[in-house]
Amino acid sequence: MPIPASTLVQTLERYFGYSTFRQNQQEIIQTVLAQQDSLVLMPTGGGKSLCYQIPAILLEGLTIVVSPLISLMKDQVDALRINGIAAAYLNSSMNPEEQRMVFQQLRDQELKLLYLAPERLVDAENRFLDFLRSINVSLLAIDEAHCISQWGHDFRPEYRMLANVKRALDNIPTIALTATADPITQKDILEKLQLRSPEVFISSFNRENIYYQVAPKRNSYEQLLDFLTERREQSGIIYTLSRASTETLAERLTQDGFLAKPYHAKLDNKTKEQHQDEFLRDETPIIVATVAFGMGINKSNVRFVVHMDLPKNIEGYYQETGRAGRDGLDSEALLFYSYADVIKMQGFVEVEGNDEQSRVLREKLQQMAVFADMRACRRKYLLNYFGEEAPDYCGSCDVCRNEYKTFNGTIIAQKALSAVVRLGERFGAGYVIDFLRGSKSEKIWAEHKQLKTYGAGIDISKKDWHGYLNDFLRLGYLKKSDDKFPVLQLTEKSWSVLKGQEEVMLVETIEPQTISIKSSARPMEEELFNQLKILRRQLAQREDVPAYLIFSDATLQELATYLPTHSDDLPGISGFGEVKIQKYGAAFLDEINQYCTENDLETRMSQLRRRSRKKRSAEVKTDTKQLTYEYYQQGKSVAEIARIRDLRTSTVSSHLAYFVQNGSLNVTELVDSATITKIEDAIYVHGDSALKPLKDSLDDSISYDEIRLVIAHTQIGED
Ligand code: ADP
Ligand code: ZN
Description:
This protein is of the alpha/beta class.
């Protein structure tokens, strides 16, 4: 019997203070509670943890969470405890006494969740496993599940043992979670973990609240200063390529009045820990880091991620930018880009003695460069890269937000293409440009200086030529060989341009004046928001936890926007669960009340209530489907449900069609197989966009309801 949706929402409210589930969290939780194995693919910041934490609360017994990131365990456990959920971890950083205490709690069945590193589960004599068998374990959650796959970017051999662990624990229900989505890794996880008829949940990888922007890398330090000045109170990560540059950049920023600390693998452990800690606690808002930083960072209020240098591939870029905005508030990703970076990075992606891999990595670097250079929606490119469809226009990347003017660039293209022909398709972009611009340099071969196209492009600057050549590459009028030093070559499309059969439309480059990124105006009391941040920091220091564990920025913004003044208002604020209301409610209310008095303001809670009523009525729609489904599961027929619920049978069957489409219901339960075949054949001929032609082509005995259900069946997995 599935647990009713309302119970899940109540649990969410009570322990976490949130009023709605995100994306497919609710379905995942229901699957876990139904004891079915599952694999969850969700982007960083998507909300994976709740998918096993809520079942852990509702299930009897213990949930074991396997995670490779020791630094994250403490954070997660602190966050759970602050919400009044009994959790602990065991890892190598603890002394024997601390460990003994955890064991005692486990024996006394006092814990709901236990976090472990994978190696902890396997010792020579299986003593720990034996211990676990002696207590009541009801769920195994495996975080960062891609670590089991050699195809992932982060293989950990210890993960291989986890299938044994599952078996040793009588095949307890298992939920595997990861933010790495490629199909090979996915398949590998299912196989290596030996999940049993698992349900696979793939969320959209779109991070709606992240604004993507690329700025030309020129005076990048000055541009960075402008950027930071506009974001004084915000916290962010700045990635640079080299360890040395993290230190020099952090120092320069400090001299210019920004609190910034460096982080890279070669700093001594104590410094690393200290800098990370200060960042987590919002004492140092900016961290300047190499990509070594971030794996274990769960900080939810990272407002921006800046890349001073070009990342090596889209995977890395997406993961790094994904660290912004876990709290769901507007956040920004800014990349400084110059073509010189591509050249520089080519050296870094060579794997000695492995041509095949080098080729793959070069290709990935090129795709990164295309992203940086493109004049079409960046979000679409990213999502397509990960195999997801997306509309042409997202409205929240720099390209979508700018208006670009197009112009006819056929002559420019003809000059460039004929230069490539004359040079025998044997030279790279730099040479071709110098040649076009009639460079007197000795680098240009004497015989080339005799050619007609030599100097034909002198009226165009070097930089613009680089831009145009990139456009031609992007548009397929040119291609690059995949050699170590790539040369420009023609494509089939080139010839129709050279022969004058095809026009080339180009986009005018608009120089960004200063970087101005959307600032969504919120009717928020900025000053109060800052005061609340200070209060949060004080509370965090007292409890020795990072500030964002007390409340996220999103919660503080709601407070500073809707101004709750009474304790009855607090359950309506996102992030205020029962325990937090008790613990922190009064302190925050005091601060808000005082602010309201001083500024002659009144509470605006009624606006919030109006908003959430709207949100709820949208939810009720899914709930009505859910209710139909629950009746159906109890064995009631479509007609009976229609009568009980006072709905038309067509409405009931459309509810059920929803569950057929998402795979929860098998169509054969509802429609006999001969009819299914007939309808499928008709869909094949007539398509499924209109019901009437289908109905007309079929026997009269076949109903609209049946057609609807079979269509849903053919669309399983589509949105
Ligand atoms: P992931 O592990 O997928 O990177 P987390 O589980 O850490 O993401 O969740 C990211 C943030 O989103 C956390 O601050 C979490 O509290 C918040 N969150 C998760 N689910 C919800 C929800 N349904 N409503 C509001 N906030 C949520
Ligand atoms: Zn866009």
